[in-house]
Amino acid sequence: MFSNRGHFNHHQHHLQLATFLSFVAGLINVCSLLSIQRFTTNVTGHFALFVEELLHTDYFMALIFFFYVMSFFFGSLVSNFLVEIISRINNTYRYTVPVAIEALLLLVAGSAYTFYKPYGPDLIAFILLFSMGLQNSLVTRVSNSVVRTSHLTGLFTDLGIEVSQLFFVRNTHKKTKLRLSIQLRLTIICFFFLGGLIGGAVYSMIGLKTLWIASTILVFTLLFDIIKKQLFKFTELISQIQERI
Q1: Angle of the 10-36 helix axis to the 122-142 helix axis, nearest 10
Q2: Taking the model in full, what pTM does it have?
């Protein structure tokens, strides 16, 4: 899932990423809103609040919102930094560590309900924003900037443009490509919504532990990816043996 072999259909690969990771992002977004009254899949609102607090001379709160923004930034930074470092050691598993870190952070955040009152919502917000920065950077790199799963503003903008282009494009190849792109964006939107819907329903029963579901999904995608790589290597080995015979 996090690696795309040359023979593998790129659109199918992007759909897999969109399905799992947009569901995770939607679940996290709703869970963070219900538990700490913060959005953690994007930083647009936090940047506006940062400016507002500066204007009101509440520098402590301004600093908190600044750290919100920087948490997302550092998540993205660390994600790509790890990919670059690991790719120089073992390129096959360059995406494994960032995903594993995100899964671990979501597990920690989901367990943080016992520390919730004494430490407030900010610690959880920092963890979730960092996690979403990790994920957004990773999926952007894996898909060559085709898939983004943590916020929908740009998606709806691109979707509106592409749907309008359907009325004007006459070339069959371009129209097919356009329809596949629309399908991908609708998949991201639908699974983001589904993640939020299920996250909200589950949160009413188990609270912040709902984040464990997102962590489990990420672990599943990692295992799926590792198994796929091993099967690919096994298939290549069998082909080489058959060629020698």
Answers
A1: 170
A2: 0.84
